[in-house]
Amino acid sequence: MSPATPPQDIAVRLTDVRLDRGTRTVLSGIDLAVPRGSITAVLGPSGSGKSTLLAALTGELVPAAGTVEVFGQPVPRRQRALLELRKGIGVLLQGNGLLTDLTAAENVALPLRTHTTLPRPVIERLVAMKLHAVGLRTAAELYPRELSGGMARRVALARALALDPPLMVYDEPLTGLDPIASGVIMSLISRLNDSLGLTSIIVTHHVHETLPVADRAIVIANGRIVFSGTPAELEATTDPLVLQFLRGEPDGPIAFDTAERSRETA
Amino acid sequence: MPFVAATRSLGRAGLFSLSVLRASKPTADFFAELLREIYKIGARSLPIIAVGGAFVGLSVTLLGYRALETYGASNQISALVGLGLYRELAPVLTALLFVGRAGSSIAAELGLMRATDQITALGLMAIDPVAKAVAPRFWAAVVCVPLLTAFFCSLGISASYFEAVHVIGIDAGTFWQVLRDAVDYRHDFVVAFQKAAVFGGTASLVACYVGYHAEPTIEGTSVATTRAVVNASLLVLMFNFVLSALLFR
Q1: For B2-52, how does the pLDDT look when each residue is reduced to its tens digit (9 = 90+)?
Q2: What value does the mean pLDDT take over residues B95-107?
């Protein structure tokens, strides 16, 4: 992000954030600003703290230090205020989180029924539109167990978009999907971001599928941000730490299976 | 330290119970969920309650007949069955059967909801997971267990009637008259339902608490299910003693 970006054009800002899980510090010294309307890819190896970062954005995890702001407002700690904030953030979880006793349409309708007073026909129309937007209008009456992995991910995407949130956060949206389904999901994310004027943050380790649609990329490794820039800058980097991740090399500055190693040396 | 851990766990369970009560708001969605849960945990428990009630009625009749016959008081068998069922057996055994059938299912469902991110997803959609997933199950149990207890009693007394009148040979009129004289509506019948409501609430709260806080893995769900059945059964038995001591004087 350009240093000249006005504050009102920043959707998410993290300032000197430290995130702990129990007594263990997962991430520290995190400074990040996500411009409105952009797609930002948060990349990093498994266990690097990407999902922990996401938990801080949604208020599930309170930072041990620093501040997290969403649309200029600090993420609140009080439950009621936090729930209000979350109405403006759509989250696509890695496991989808679809309620198994509801159909696809009922899942998409759930946030609308809970947070709006719209009449039932209007909600049904909105649900049909959301499912149509992800190409699943004919799957409205199917239960999650009857959907393929890619279809379930798209239903979860439709549900995350139900309240038209200005900010979308995707947690590992491609995990468990075949290449075609992955392509469909990435294309949807890109198209929806442009057509609905959203701001998107994609937390993933699928570098090659994500970078083509991303405006910006950050790489997290060893408990900190090791790269921040455009996808073109990322591909041109010579930083050995980033290169190890991009090339998938087992040996390098990013420790692999640190727990195993520490146990062996203990 | 086990004492500190136990106290902390008790405190958490207390706060969880308060959050369930706070989340119980009479909305249309709540009633729709409540009806669904009443069907799932109440109506589907009817067969085992029917079988359990009938066999308990038969056993108590046989046992009571052999004891009362010694004193020439075998025609008092319906008093023994009626008081035994209403005061102790029906509320406790219904609650224990309910724990085995529905309590385990509540814990497993909530544990799986936790393991499959459904509870996390509700929170991220700004929907209170306790209001959506826990409160309807709790109130369904509070409503269902007294009704199931009534069903248990009906089946128990019907089975007892069949055995006492048609097998043992006690006069049918005597059977019903002794039962009417012995069982008091307010002190036995109503109290049985009050006990059942407490047991239902306790059993479902325990099942919901352990399921909701289960470790998000398959093993965690399995542990939660076992814990729900064991803890809820023990609590029902303990509360039964306390309530019997307080209510039947």
Answers
A1: 788 888 888 998 999 999 999 898 888 889 999 999 999 999 999 999 999
A2: 94
The pLDDT, as a whole number, for residue A260 is 44
**CA nearest A108: which of A99, A120, A117, A116?**
A99
Contacts of B126 in chain A (CB under 8 A): 83-84, 86-87, 111, 114-115
Higher pLDDT residue, A44 or A254?
A44
CA-derived radius of gyration, chain A: 19
Number of Cβ atoms within 10 Å of the Cβ of B237 = 13
Closest CA to A42 of A259, A199, A240, A206: A206
ipTM of predicted assembly, 2 dp: 0.83
Task: Calculate mean pLDDT across residues B174-186.
Answer: 89
Q: What mean pLDDT is reported for chain A?
A: 85
Looking at residue A205, its pLDDT comes to 84
Query: Minimal Cα–Cα distance from B29 to chain A, Å?
Result: 8
Is A251's pLDDT higher than 60? yes
Q: What pLDDT shows up at residue A254? A: 66
Interface test mutation site (partner B, options A85, A94, A101, max chain B beta carbons within 10 A): A101
B191-212 helix and B90-98 helix, angle to the nearest 10 degrees? 20
Residue of B nearest to A85 (CA): B126
What is the least distance, in Å, from the CA of A97 to any CA of chain B?
A: 4
- Helix axis angle for B191-212 and B135-161, nearest 10°, is 140
Which residues, including other chains, have CB under 8 Å from residue A179's CB and lie 6 or more apart? none
Kindly report the nearest CA distance between residue B220 and chain A, in angstroms.
Answer: 17
Chain A residues whose CB is inside 8 A of the B112 CB are 100
Q: Of how many residues is chain A composed?
A: 266
Task: Say what the pTM is.
Answer: 0.84
Q: How far is CA A24 from CA A21, A48, A64, A166, A258, in A?
A: 5, 13, 11, 33, 14
